[in-house]
Specification:
CATH topology of one domain: Lysozyme
Helix content: 40-55%
Strand content: 5-15%
CATH class of one domain: Mainly Alpha
Number of helices: 22
CATH architecture of one domain: Orthogonal Bundle
Distance between the termini: 66 Å
Low-confidence stretches: 2-33, 469-498
Radius of gyration: 29 Å
Number of strands: 8
Length: 552
């Protein structure tokens, strides 16, 4: 919902495609392990199959967002090769399989980093309101048949808001049956998740429940909808109006995308507009264009009849089309079978609530509850990041039945395992500017992520959350005092001198990956893979995971 210059769309038959449909993000192909045929006579094939089984499980866990479990399986896959007598390079077949496994794991880790270390903002999708054309409606004469069907639908369904079946409204009904048919049907199905709650809230506020279909026109019931005018959520609030009606917006959370809270805000706003204009058509016009625009039109043209004002220059074409679009949506949505729609409404998901204190990566939450991270994100669309807010408690929705398990898991997790993103411990003399330069971030982003003023002086020992803007750069630099949960976690094995064990090496001044690799009889490429490094930059004081022979 936008004030002033809000762009509301009304599509026409001339539209070649409806911009509401959005493309799924492209996904890089992940190298899939080969599936060798296992025979009793070939122990190498058995060994590779064992490693590939761990690798496949790791990839599956990664797709579910379970990063720690994925890395555990990846560690086991590497361990199969590293504990072979003579090492992973002792046999050409084992060496090739080991190299393939390393490259697959490395690609997975880079893709995880590309997700933004939990801080890249959740992507939005185009608001349906922006896909409607401004070409005038009603240029084609509606047929008597379309008028008859609409009149019967209104009579039988009895909408609780006055509906006028004029040529503009009938033209919109034809639009929903024609060029926008697929979009309208999908919106009806999606609305099943939200309509019961919307009707309940509207009834409690004493406003017409059929105004629930305003959300269909605004966003097609998409919580992630973002318009060109930066209006957001199911109800398309601009930032200022959202804040005016109590919808919090900060670096972590945007409650305009919370369908429950935004619905209560929309009900309050619509009720206020009706009290102001004493007419639902004018209230809807004001929801679109702003109450100031409507009041000026009334004052200038001396009428409070929306349909008369629509004949003047009081409103832009988008506002003139907006009200008939809503009338038409109510008519069709209340009698979909009359218009050839078969509605299969999506059910509202059941969920539990878990109080989460501070920033916790949603991938950690999903792993605790053995859930898909996508399901948790879908239940909490108001979260702008892949994490709960820092320095405060957040009521997180989780899939029904998982609440107690997740709460117990988070309560017992060490602090360092509650996040998979980057933190920084402030040293003496450091400032927000110097920390931002260190990580290739921005002072503004670090300040907002930590609830600080950009001019705030930092105290030694303060732990900062670091939003890294460039995941590639983040992968190649490992500044001191950074919590890094990407490294493998294999435990040393009491094995023969030719077998590999895991050690942690503290980087010293003057060290390079090449000198460390030479010292431990390995390669730079393996060091990069074991530590998820894209380049060769390392920093004194950090630790590297190294797999080496016990003799070394």
């Amino acid at each position: 919902m936008r004030e002033g210059g809000k762009r509301i769309l009304v599509a026409t038959a001339g539209l070649a495609a409806f911009a509401c449909a959005h493309s799924a993000p492209s996904v890089k192909p992940v190298l899939q392990p080969a599936a060798p045929k296992v025979t009793e006579a070939d122990p190498i094939v058995r060994l590779i199959a064992m490693a590939d089984a761990h690798l496949a499980r790791g990839l599956a866990e990664g797709r579910a967002g379970h990063l720690n479990q994925a890395r555990g399986e990846f560690d086991k896959a590497l361990e199969v090769y590293l504990t072979v007598p003579g090492g992973a390079r002792a046999n050409p077949r084992i060496a090739n399989a080991y190299q393939r496994t390393l490259e697959t794991i490395q690609l997975h880790e880079f893709e995880a980093l590309a997700a933004g270390d939990g801080f890249i903002e959740t992507p939005s999708e185009p608001a349906s309101i922006d896909a409607v054309s401004e070409i005038p409606l009603g240029e084609a004469e509606p047929t008597e048949e379309s008028r008859r069907v609409a009149e019967e639908a209104v009579k039988e369904e009895a909408p609780d808001v006055p509906i006028l079946l004029n040529d503009q409204v009938l033209a919109c009904i034809d639009l929903y049956q024609g060029p926008l048919r697929d979009w309208f049907g999908e919106a009806l199905n999606r609305g099943g998740r939200y309509l019961p709650h919307i009707r309940e809230v509207f009834a409690a506020e004493g406003i017409p429940q059929d105004l629930a279909y305003v959300a269909l026109v605004e966003s097609a019931f998409k919580t992630g909808a973002l318009s060109r005018a930066k209006a957001k959520g199911v109800w398309q609030f601009i930032s200022a109006t959202g804040k005016r009606f109590g919808l919090a917006q900060d670096w972590w959370v945007d409650e305009r995308s919370d369908p429950e809270k935004a619905t209560r805000a929309a009900a309050s706003y619509l009720k206020q507009l009706h009290q102001m204009f004493q007419d639902w058509n004018l209230a809807l016009a004001a929801y679109n264009a702003g109450e100031g625009k409507v009041q000026r039109g009334i004052n200038r043209y001396g009428t409070s009849d929306f349909w008369e004002l629509a004949k003047t220059r009081a409103f832009k074409r988008e506002t003139k089309n907006y009200v008939p679009m809503i009338h038409a949506a109510i008519v069709v949505a209340k009698a979909p079978e009359r218009y050839g729609f078969t509605v299969d409404p999506q059910a509202a998901p059941a969920y539990d609530m878990v109080a989460v204190d501070g920033a916790v990566d949603l991938r950690v939450v999903a792993e605790c509850g053995e859930n898909q991270v996508a399901d948790i994100r879908e239940l909490n669309p108001e979260l702008r990041r892949l994490a709960t807010p820092a320095k405060r408690s957040f009521a997180l929705k989780v899939p029904a039945g998982a609440g107690d398990r997740i709460a117990a898991c988070l309560a017992s997790l060490p602090v360092e395992k509650r996040v998979t993103f980057r933190t920084h411990l402030v040293a003496r003399g450091e400032t927000l500017s110097s920390v931002a330069r260190l990580y290739g971030s921005r002072v503004k982003d670090i300040a907002e992520a930590n609830g600080l003023s950009p001019k705030r002086r930092l105290s030694r020992g303060t732990e900062l959350i670091i939003p890294v803007r460039d995941a590639g750069r983040a992968a190649t630099s490992a500044p001191r005092q950074v919590r890094n949960t990407v490294e493998p976690k294999l435990e040393p094995r009491a094995s023969g001198a030719s077998e590999r064990v895991r050690i942690s090496y503290t980087i010293k001044a003057g060290d390079t990956l090449a000198t460390i690799a030479s010292r431990y009889n390995t390669t730079v490429r393996e060091l990069q893979a074991w530590n998820s490094l894209r380049g060769s930059r390392i920093a004194a004081g950090n630790t590297l995971t190294v797999y080496t022979r016990r003799a070394d």
